[in-house]
């Protein structure tokens, strides 16, 4: 499986695109911080935000993010300090978007945070919206797919879906930060998870020292 962080810059001048989907689980900050970290690493970032995620973002953060893809891209570029064109956003039923097809989708997709609803849809191949379809494409093309679920406690349904997805090659990376780095701020907990995601993508970062450093 190709690593998102290993390639040369593509013709856009950015590192290869990574798809980031933010769904309606608690922990919107993980997804927003992941976008910032990918931008800082020079990657193009293709973003989808579910309707429920917009509500969670409104509830949990002070980010003011419009729903329409073009406006959303402008707002995310502004808040992350991205270069023009570095962030592209796609709408819920934008079936002609490159992420909807194996011929156009990036080599890596992260669903962060991932609601149990989207987890279930991905595990069963529902493909009822562009996030679910893009994840389905990632699975069928054997690309890197990382899901960051946040729910507690977990039911047998959640656990079975996670096991099935792991067996299909996806990475289940629960939003469960450790405490051994002695976090002082919420941002330290967020960075713990984002660092783990970047490790999975093979992208260099300085968010946290690696174990043993
Ligand atoms: C403030 C808020 C917090 C939520 N937290 C979670 C959560 O932590 N985990 C989860 O699976 N769903 C959570 N939900 C419920 C999901 O948003 C809901 O199931 C939704 O249908 C998910 O849709 P999506 O997967 O298309 O984003 C939350 C909803 C709201 C409004």
TrEMBL record:
Keyword Manganese in record: no
Enzyme Commission (EC) number: 2.5.1.129
Enzymatic class: transferase
UniProt domain Flavoprotein: residue ranges: 18-201
InterPro entries: Flavin_trans-like, Flavoprotein, UbiX-like
UniProt superkingdom: Bacteria
Catalytic reaction equation(s): dimethylallyl phosphate + FMNH2 = prenylated FMNH2 + phosphate
Membrane-traversing stretches: none
Residues annotated as binding FMN: 24-26, 50, 115-118, 150
Positions that bind dimethylallyl phosphate: 180, 196
Keywords, in A-Z order: Flavoprotein, FMN, Prenyltransferase, Transferase
Role summary: Flavin prenyltransferase that catalyzes the synthesis of the prenylated FMN cofactor (prenyl-FMN) for 4-hydroxy-3-polyprenylbenzoic acid decarboxylase UbiD. The prenyltransferase is metal-independent and links a dimethylallyl moiety from dimethylallyl monophosphate (DMAP) to the flavin N5 and C6 atoms of FMN.
Annotated family: Belongs to the UbiX/PAD1 family.
Protein name: Flavin prenyltransferase UbiX
Species this chain originates from: Billgrantia sulfidoxydans
């Amino acid at each position: 499986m190709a690593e998102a962080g290993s390639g040369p810059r593509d013709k856009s001048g950015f590192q290869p695109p990574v798809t980031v989907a933010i769904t309606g689980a608690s922990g919107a900050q993980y997804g927003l911080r992941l976008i910032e970290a990918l931008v800082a690493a020079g990657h193009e970032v293709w973003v989808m935000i579910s309707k429920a995620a917009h509500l969670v973002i409104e509830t949990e953060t002070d980010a003011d993010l419009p729903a329409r893809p073009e406006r959303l891209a402008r707002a995310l570029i502004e808040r992350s300090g991205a270069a023009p064109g570095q962030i592209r956003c796609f709408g819920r039923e934008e079936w002609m978007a490159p992420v909807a097809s194996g011929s156009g989708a990036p080599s890596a997709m992260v669903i962060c945070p991932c609601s149990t609803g989207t987890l279930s849809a991905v595990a069963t191949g529902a493909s009822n919206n562009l996030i679910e379809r893009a994840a389905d494409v990632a699975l069928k093309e054997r690309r890197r797919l990382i899901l960051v679920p946040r729910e507690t406690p977990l039911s047998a349904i959640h656990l079975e879906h996670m096991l099935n997805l792991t067996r299909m090659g996806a990475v289940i990376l629960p939003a469960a930060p450790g405490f051994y780095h002695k976090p002082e701020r919420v941002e330290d907990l967020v960075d713990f998870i984002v660092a783990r995601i970047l490790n999975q993508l093979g992208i260099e970062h300085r968010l946290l020292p690696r174990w043993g450093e």
